[in-house]
Automatic annotation (TrEMBL):
The lineage of its organism: Bacteria, Pseudomonadati, Pseudomonadota, Gammaproteobacteria, Enterobacterales. It comes from Mangrovibacter plantisponsor. Belongs to the UPF0270 family. InterPro entries: UPF0270, YehU-like_sf. It comes from the Bacteria. Signal peptide: none annotated. This is UPF0270 protein DES37_12020.
Length: 72
């Protein structure tokens, strides 16, 4: 299920995004970027609708994924 990012408290949203970008294996290209830059990039993608917050009932987790990969 998609969770509208606008309905998440700003601090909670920031924490979700930080957790997402700190996960091992997340690739941001050849150049290293700061945590703040990565968080800003993901937040921009959420605002533009290119990424979505997704709740998994099965795993009881929230994830961020490209809208094109969401099958729900």
């Amino acid at each position: 299920m998609i969770i509208p990012w606008q309905q998440i408290a700003p601090d909670t949203l920031d924490n979700l995004i930080e957790s997402f970008v700190l996960r091992e294996g997340t690739d941001y290209g050849a150049q290293e970027r700061s945590l703040a830059q990565k968080v800003a990039d993901v937040k921009r993608q959420l605002k533009q609708g290119d990424a979505v917050l997704v709740w998994s009932e099965l795993h009881e987790t929230v994830n961020i994924m490209p809208r094109t990969q969401f099958k729900g």
